[in-house]
Amino acid sequence: MPPDHFARTPQPKNVIAxxxxxxxxxxxxxxxxxxxxxxSAWRILKEGLTGNSGWKPVWRDPDPKPEYDxxxxxxxxxxxxxxxxxxxxxxxxxxAVLEKGYLGGGNIGRNTTIVRANYFLPGxxxxxxxxxxxxxxxxxxLNYNVMMSQRGVLMxxxxxxxxxxxxxxxxxxxxxxxxxxxxxTEEVRRLMPYLNFDSPRFPIYGGLMQWRGGxxxxxxxxxxxxxxxDRRGVDLIQNCEVTGIDVRNGRVTGVQTVRGExxxxxxxxxxxxxxxxxxxxxxxxxxxxxxxxxxxxTEGLKPVIxxxxxFGMGHFYISQSDKGGLVFGGDLDMYPSYAQRGNxxxxxxxxxxxxxxxxxIGQARLLRSWGGIMDMTPDGSPIIDRTGIDxxxxxxxxxxGGFKAVPASGFAFAHLIATDxxxxxxxxxxxxxxxxxxxxxxxxxxxxQHNLH
Length: 453
Description:
D-Amino Acid Oxidase, Chain A, domain 2, eight-stranded mixed β-sheet, alpha/beta
């Protein structure tokens, strides 16, 4: 099928207006949980009028046991989803998730919430296709409203060459079994009239749309997986910083924490931007650099941006949240850092891209910004693999695309830990690709510089 004649995928109903009354939606979807945690529209109204003092914890707060079958270091989205799938898919429930602070307090709780599966290269394409399918059934799976909104993700193109590249990408996405629609300039104009179609420097030649992509509520994803894992017997241990990894005769035996020693048959490292620091506790040096990525949100506005939009000639992407704020981000700060704050030159760069793509954004007042620590690999693709130490496993290197991978990452990492075999959609995410140079997954074709991915 010629790339300009992709079959049309029906546009989903706009859900922004409904989700703007998210409290009511959240209550109604969770009424079925009334017997377990007492969620209902009436309960939310009552608690709102009485200082929210009557809610009970959604998961336990246990003390660590002396020994577990599996210890997961990191209580973010990937760690919590791994714990959930270990219990659900493999029946392994003697598991502890150790979190330095509070569950969901890292990147899972502060990101731009985008979900998509518009990857080109074999290896990435299958993995993110699996993740999107899991996203589509996640609310039913967890019986928890993660506010999944398949509003569509549009990648704009600004030259003939870029349009041709997007046509090729779209065909690859469709061959994988996912949806993609190559849109003309006029089709984009009808959909998004607020974009700058008169720019002589960055003319809009159309774009590649994936209607099944969209956004989800970041912290709700963490809460849903946490509750699901807890109900299956997993211990979620907060304020439990890991200070050392015990290795004897080439095999992991447990971890040292601020709350004492915890023995374990298997240990998984899943700590995102802190991957290098934690792996060093076991004497490992990873092919990863940690960089800061900034994001921004404006004051609440009436619904105006009904989709997720990315700028093809600058690293800029934007959507509108359920509360009305415009949520957007750009490129990395370009130098390694563990500081969870960004620099002003990169913030200015993001604002310039925003104004170039949609001058109307200049009328919005910026509410806040934040920085997250990204674990960047040399080819921009993740690692899910066993390490050279028996019983020690690693999941990381998600660059700035970790949120959309949360379900499939946990699914694949749990399979690896349980069976010692990579899951079929994550077979290419091995350490040895950096040693051999074979099967590098350089999705953007930008080479081996961490900061360029």
